[in-house]
Design brief:
It is a single chain. By secondary structure, this protein is mainly alpha-helical. Helices cover about 80% and strands about 0% of the residues. The protein is built from 8 helices and no strands.
């Protein structure tokens, strides 16, 4: 009985390893490729991620990715193809992190807006006083110009962020912040003047 002699995979070049893997699906072949370029993979990860732990995590993900991708793609030159794969994987991670940061910043901004709103327009716990304050605020908003009123309603009453107010109104971020700042000042003056004058509230 004859046995086929096992080829020494270390003697094969990159493209030969890829070709054999696409036929046999032997993970040892990919393991050999990965071992040859582990240092390169890590250096590319560090270039984009700037974090050793993240670079190590992505490096290990690349090995798992190679097991799948090498079955699907016709790879003529393995080394430059691998460089592109690692780069794209890093960019995907960075974009995901950017989205998460933006989402967290929006949440924090809304919380700051809520706290600022409570500090600027503190409403007493007494139900009657609270209702009067709400009426004052509603009447005061009507006295503001269209731009200020729209921005304040979105920012304070609907708890929108500056970016969301900008998106909803079409105003620039600079305009939004200006309308909110000036509108807040005008509204506060109106509420204070009505409260100090003792004038009856409108129905």
């Amino acid at each position: 009985m004859f046995f086929r002699k096992r080829v020494n995979i270390k003697s094969l070049n990159d493209e030969e390893l890829v070709e054999r893997y696409q036929k046999d699906y032997d993970p040892e072949l990919v393991g050999e490729l990965f071992e040859r370029y582990t240092h390169l993979v890590y250096l590319v990860c560090m270039k984009y991620l700037k974090d050793p732990m993240e670079a190590e995590d992505v490096s290990m993900q690349i090995f798992e990715k190679l097991l799948v991708d090498l079955r699907k793609y016709n790879v003529r030159k393995f080394k430059p193809w691998l460089h592109t794969v690692v780069k794209n994987q890093c960019l995907i991670l960075l974009e995901k992190q950017k989205r998460e940061r933006t989402r967290n910043e929006n949440v924090q901004e809304k919380e700051r807006s809520r706290m600022e709103s409570e500090q600027e327009f503190y409403l007493p716990s007494d139900a009657q006083l609270r209702e009067e304050q709400l009426v004052l605020m509603e009447n005061g908003l009507k006295m503001l110009n269209e731009h200020q009123r729209a921005c304040l309603e979105l920012f304070y009453l609907q708890q929108k962020s500056y970016q969301e107010v900008s998106d909803a109104t079409g105003y620039t971020m600079k305009e939004v912040k200006s309308y909110i700042q000036n509108g807040k000042r005008n509204l506060k003056k109106h509420m204070e003047s009505i409260s100090s004058s003792g004038l009856p509230l409108e129905d």
